[in-house]
Task: structure prediction
Amino acid sequence: MSERRPHQPLRRGLLKASLWGSVAFAARPLVAQPLKVPDWTRQLGRPAGDGTYGLPSEFEKQVVRRQLSWMARVPESAVNFTPLQHQKGILTPSGLHFERHHGGIPAIDPDQHELVIHGLVERPLRFSMEELTRFPSVSRIHFIECAANGGLEWKGVQLETAQHTHGMLSCSEWTGVKLSTLLGEVGVKPRAKWLLAEGADAATMTRSIPIEKALDDIIVAWGQNGEALRPEQGYPLRLVVPGWEGNLQIKWLRRLELGEQPWQTREETARYSDFMPDGTARQFTFVQEANSVILSPSGGMKLDQTGFHEIRGLAWSGRGKVAEVQVSRDGGQRWELAQLEGPVLPFCLTRFTLPWRFEGQRQLLQSRCIDETGYVQPRLDQLVAARGTASFYHKNAIQTWEVTNQGEVRNAQV
Amino acid sequence: MSERRPHQPLRRGLLKASLWGSVAFAARPLVAQPLKVPDWTRQLGRPAGDGTYGLPSEFEKQVVRRQLSWMARVPESAVNFTPLQHQKGILTPSGLHFERHHGGIPAIDPDQHELVIHGLVERPLRFSMEELTRFPSVSRIHFIECAANGGLEWKGVQLETAQHTHGMLSCSEWTGVKLSTLLGEVGVKPRAKWLLAEGADAATMTRSIPIEKALDDIIVAWGQNGEALRPEQGYPLRLVVPGWEGNLQIKWLRRLELGEQPWQTREETARYSDFMPDGTARQFTFVQEANSVILSPSGGMKLDQTGFHEIRGLAWSGRGKVAEVQVSRDGGQRWELAQLEGPVLPFCLTRFTLPWRFEGQRQLLQSRCIDETGYVQPRLDQLVAARGTASFYHKNAIQTWEVTNQGEVRNAQV
Result:
């Protein structure tokens, strides 16, 4: 199964029981003949590069971030979606991390960059990058998801692939100093209840964050997946706000101000607030609630062969760990328990799998996540009943993929 | 502290207690004046790329893999070391994963690549990449370390940086099918005790692996850090053999043969065997025993300022999880318990930290790892007493970094 290259039908093989269960699989008996020796074995390969930064194989050129051309009004304020349907594990390669910028990607010299902390503090301070990286540090694997992820479908747009339905979601190992450590340095005054974070990009992105979260698990990060932050992810410094909407996780971080009230910036009034059915808008709805999506198979793919396949997907919750993922093959009538694969970490993508046979019958595949608080990911009609249709942010409804009897996989959302 | 850019002295700051302990830190009071608005805030940044694969900041060009030019006899048989001293977390970016090739890096078309399993099996089979990726899959974060990592120092060579002393070590999330699953498909005959793995590179690298390990935790991997394997790491298919020497983890995997005896290939006779003091050689010493290294500060760095610093390093064990890391500042007379940071996973790099003050006095920094079996990482003299000086592989001795009273950090090994 693939959307990568032209369809090559698999030859029909044996159906048999195996050590790993009763799932039969198509494979091909080995005929007694010498193995082919391809050209790449007959000649020396490319030498190890000296001083070059490695890149993917030339055969993987289709695995890249993609925009929706009609979405961006100006190229500096664009969304570039992660190819989630190709993601193999819980980590997103830094070169494929989704992008959302409001004033383009600045090229910041780390030797000139400073972070200032001021406002309701005992000792306002400024920190160079060298100073910041001397502090006690942590490394945590966390997802970041744009509050608008999936929101287009709330507006009736039906997108083809998981890259566009869910691709404002990525997951990295983040390294930095806990914000609480820095706040300890400056000394937070008792009256301080909120914190303003400001980026050094041309949009000087600003968001207000409650002091409780700031003193809990927020990271002032300089590292991503083992190296410095990527430019698109805030090089040299960003906030990582575990489980909360991406917009808060200010990139190119240059200023933190402590105060008594939220600042009511553009990004928490005109944007990133949730329109409700009664005409009001909810503000400061920070948490990315439990969500999940099946990625294999998913929209735009084609099952080339009947028989065994593994259903694979990702689940996550902004309230901590994923407790359980259920999968339905009949549009939500019956649910089966999926297996959680690999480490299950808080505020982190969690991989789930389920063995599956496709025998040419139409199916409606769904997954739903239940997190450690007991919250169950809702259906879209449940979400609409609670929040109407004027909303855009925080759409975490169950995704439906239709598998036709021809094996074509289509978005059956809405 | 940095080896990255020309030395910029930190301005002297306040010494004070803080919320995170009694460790004083140098930072700079904020003078009441408007914040500078740098050029990168005054103008729009670069737009999000469409269809491009992301790369690090131009200010991080020095963080690359490096060779030792005098080591490689031909460029296709080279070692390219990971810049471990710059690694921020437990993961190594795929673009910086160490390389060791014996016949160069082949460019393999995944649509033409096949894996054959034959020999003492019930049903010899061949698998295309499409077929393999339909099997039940796993994702695991594991280190891979060359058996020769650090071995040069056994020969009296004293290398400057951690990149060259320990940089044949990297850690990735690997995704694939368990080898035991595929062996279930072909049906292993009771007489089969060993397995030969063969690569499709020009060296057709071959190693013998005991059947017990093959049925335990080996992965036939197609994914690395969320995407397809990198070409240097075996694209499209490799073995991942958790905790065992890198040479076994055959890249560009094309053939697995089951048999009664090891094959005694070049790579397990003339190479990758351990010369002992009595003139014999030990073969099939697979496990990478417990090891650790302090990376910050480490060789080639300079402490620009006295006062608080965090000691940071990585520990690992080929026998499972790291249980404990101890740090000495006086060349091994006294030991302190370091903190283990982030997830502690089996056969995975584990990050450790220790708060530290440098006040201009000469120090000898060491770390030692104790794994979950109770094994304690040895001193070099203990290793030499047991294994002599003719050895080369599996050097896991404690590393010593000297910090001079000028703050220069030097390799004090041997």
The radius of gyration of chain B is 23 Å.
